[in-house]
Fold this protein.
Amino acid sequence: KERKLILAIESSCDETSVAVIENGDTILSNVVASQVKSHQRFGGVVPEVASRHHVEEITLCIEEALAEADVKPDDLGAVGVTYGPGLVGALLIGISAAKAFAWAHDLPLIPVNHMAGHIYAAHFVEPLQFPLMALLVSGGHTELVYMRETGSFEIIGETRDDAAGEAYDKVGRVLGLTYPSGKEIDELAHLGEDTYHFPRAMMKEDNYDFSFSGLKSSFINTVHNAEQRNEELIVKDLAASFQASVIDVLADKTIRACKEYPVKQLVMAGGVAANIGLRDRLSKEVTEELQGVTFIVPPLRLCGDNAAMIGAAAFVEAEKAHFADYHLNADPSLSF
Ligand code: KG4
Ligand code: ZN
């Protein structure tokens, strides 16, 4: 069988990542250089800092990914790169590196949508089967995407304001936790109980949209009011209450969407897909309520930003002969 090797590059936010993927489903290497420590003291990603780190890391990551995969540039068949959505300056570093590499080694260039990449991360767990529903939950996105076939994406619902991960990070800041705080809130939530009963926005509405800004405000008000009155706050219960509210709306709408649309699989992807509470809840509800539907969540290391997922999505694009020329530009607000 012919070996089709793709070098994949991801630099849309605060991780510089390069991977070598074989035939779209086997990871030969997946190097991730995280900048998270450099952004922590600012409580969020600083675009200019991110770009500088990408410049410093990108060639090292390419060399490391090739060495780890034991692959020479001549063995490769294509270069895939994220061109959006993301931070424009960050995206441009990956795109420039991909163009230079493709030009130097006479390889075709494949433009990849970062969010498609998150969905295709599930392909490393189990071959994707269509039609499928994908719940994409990250720091920048919260959306339900319906895929009738490979490479086809239809957003059936999305957040009207904050993304789920963004809400976790903002609430974490109020609690004085380190950025990004999703993982820590998830851990605290498992120790506490839903005693604060925050709102579940839009849960009963007849659509697949989400809203998290009301929950965030309600949380912040609760904390500030308690501080003013010198009342004691139980942090683990605050975390549990916040998380219960997020999980209730995400799970409710996702399961409803899977009942309305014909689906063979439900894929959950993006950084917030690492959330243990959300994984457990959806897994249980799919088993109980959706006969014949398989629930797939990528392993934790493939939930956050990485280039392996970009390589999997690039393989699909290459099969469809979707290539780019050297005019390829970053598209910071790229949608499906
Ligand atoms: O997909 P990702 O790595 O980057 C974006 O493209 O946004 O997602 C990062 C987000 C952050 O907001 C982070 O707090 C959140 O994912 N996150 C979590 C968990 N682990 C990471 N949120 C909730 N529970 C977690 N266990
Ligand atoms: Zn992402």
Remarks:
- The longest helix spans residues 235-260.
- The chain has two domains: 5-119+303-319, 127-297.
- The mean pLDDT is 96.
